[in-house]
Design goal:
The structure is a homodimer of 353-residue chains.
Chain A (H helix, E strand, L loop, with lengths): L4 E4 L3 H10 L6 E6 H7 L1 H7 L5 E5 L8 H13 L7 E6 L1 H13 L5 E6 L2 H7 L7 E3 L2 E5 L7 E4 L9 H18 L1 H9 L8 H20 L14 H13 L6 H20 L3 H15 L9 H9 L9 E8 L2 E8 L1 H14 L3
Parallel strand pairs in A: 1-8, 2-3, 2-4, 4-5, 5-8
Antiparallel strand pairs in A: 6-7, 9-10
Helix pairs in contact in A: 4-5, 5-6, 6-7, 6-9, 7-8, 7-9, 7-11, 10-11, 10-13, 11-12, 11-14
Chain lengths: 353, 353
């Protein structure tokens, strides 16, 4: 995997044009979705790339992150005369960057793409690391490839247009990165003032956070080992997310991760001596900023089943990445069903359920 | 791109089981099509991999090399419980290896696959080199990725069940490889007795031929330069093939390449002093074994248009890989429209049209 350029700047247009001017190319296509267009403005998008061959617009939301939408993108590329020397700029949240990356990676066996994430979640997570993909037959990200963007331009410029829940959703992934990095990085995140989200402080926290992920991905691009550290909070988080989806009351990914982090720091305590004071500190923070996801004992069998069939799990076992302290993670921790159930009990206590 | 293992043997089952036994995996899925099953026998396929989780069967032919079929394969993999540790064995011709490779390369962001080509064309061409893909919106191989099989097992074992036209179709690609390699390699091919197609002589010619392609692909896996040498005969050949398809009278790919080689050796003569005696020798051989593809002056505009819009062409120019002698190729030769028209005139003379 080649080295990917990441720019941290609010001068998005300048950075993008610098990136594009360095590429040997013919046409540039911009991909975005209807929500992004509405929130950020058609004129702003049109102004980004002066000589864009076309602006391709898709329907927003995870429900449209599928093969039908990919086919629409491929058709628009064909209609615009895209060749192997064309470049696509994915301008949007995780759906746009994941789906656009996959569409580009498979068009004529691969054209290059640049990601410009417009949400905190895609900035911190989806736009970096080469995971592209779409949902298929009800399974998330079931179809995709590993292919890195040529460059990613990360800013806080577009975050003001987002609802607070979107910011918090992305912030949960930043908390995860802080926990993976060090006590100091984690402390900086817990001290951050949420109301200052457009400030330069957030951009520097974002840079630190993205670099945590980048360092891990460089060491393990194809998720054979170390990269599973990034799964912290996600085994339980995905279970919450899948169950909520199945019940018809979906929850944002980042909120699911936030609650998943509580469950998995509890497991970290019982399995790897993660300090109980740190478990309490996180649980309080999450409860204050994210509220609680309500579960009862009756939900345990479904949650356990989701966890056992996580994409990263291999043999139907309960497999977690767990901390012994902030900055010290062990991947591939297999725990018993009873331990998971106990962690769910403690989660409910901590969340005052 | 990792190094790909290629086995040349008629002990296919042994080789396949050796390959599979060396892989850390859970389930093996076999992909084939209905024609292959009929020609080679369901029992033979079932016997190949004793503990296959499922044999996935697709409809045969280029007309089914599309996203609908890929979705069927993905669904069957899901139904069979395939995980990232599963392996797919693509057993068939070019449609099975191209489509199966793409389906595997994109399922859960990529599972491993092994190719067992059953036609001469797929053995010599499609199964080696990492090109996977399907047709889309009427364009051939428009969607795909570069991803090599873990291993390819090449034999002449299944060729006896093929019609002669299939053998000749593959043989045209071998002639191309001979022209790229050396006068000696090329001579060996012209001297081969077509009626001995199941013999070991063909297997050794096949090995030499595949190695020509492999050496080029290793040097240029992503088709940035040298690999375009493999395009010899294909710019004109694809034009014949596309025109025939458009007229509703499709011709086999290898036949199109054979006739394309005649056109492009003529161009090699006029542009790069390729010996005229060699042009005559090839034209005679092709006329004897493949007959002629009939074209008139009225077909020239369409043929020229197809050539200018070849996937490997960049700016609507006429771009060829041309020989100065067998073994000496130059890629990226831009020639004039008049030179192409003159070559088509000479092609018609040589083919007695």
């Amino acid at each position: 995997m080649t080295h990917q350029e990441i720019y941290f700047t609010n001068e998005v247009k300048n950075a993008l044009n610098t990136v594009l001017s360095q590429m040997d190319k013919n046409y540039v296509f911009v991909l975005t979705d209807k929500n992004v267009k509405k929130a950020i403005g058609e004129d702003v998008i049109a102004d980004l790339v002066a000589d864009a061959k076309a602006i391709i617009e898709i329907e927003p939301g995870d429900v449209n992150k599928n093969l039908e939408t990919v086919q629409l993108v491929w058709s628009k590329l064909q209609q615009g005369g895209a060749t192997r020397k064309s470049v696509m700029v994915n301008f949007g949240g995780g759906v746009v960057t994941d789906l656009g990356g996959f569409a580009a990676a498979t068009f004529k066996r691969g054209i290059r793409f640049v990601n410009v994430p417009t949400t905190l979640l895609s900035a911190v997570d989806a736009a970096v690391g080469g995971k592209t993909g779409v949902n298929f037959n009800g399974l998330k990200n079931e179809i995709g490839v590993f292919k890195e963007a040529e460059a990613v331009i990360i800013s806080t410029r577009y975050l003001a247009s987002l609802p607070e829940s979107e910011i918090k959703s992305g912030y949960a992934e930043m908390l995860k990165h802080g926990l993976l990095k060090s006590t100091e990085a984690y402390n900086r995140l817990l001290q951050f003032d949420f109301n200052d989200n457009a400030g330069s402080n957030l951009l520097s926290l974002l840079e630190e956070s993205v670099n945590v992920k980048r360092e891990i991905v460089i060491q393990d691009p194809l998720e054979k080992g170390l990269r599973r550290a990034l799964n912290l909070g996600h085994t339980a988080g995905h279970a919450f997310e899948s169950m909520a989806l199945h019940k018809g009351t979906p929850i944002p990914h980042g909120y699911a991760v936030a609650w998943g982090l509580v469950v998995e720091t509890v497991l970290s305590h019982t399995e790897r001596q993660y300090p109980s004071s740190e478990v309490y500190r996180l649980a309080e923070y999450i409860l204050t900023h994210y509220g609680a996801y309500h579960i009862t004992c009756d939900d345990y069998p479904a949650l356990l089943d989701y966890m056992a069939h996580d994409k990263k799990s291999e043999n139907g076992e309960y497999n977690f990445s767990l901390l012994s302290s902030p900055g010290n993670i062990t991947t591939g921790c297999v725990v018993t069903k009873e331990a998971v159930e106990a962690a769910l009990d403690i989660y409910r206590d901590l969340m005052h359920i």
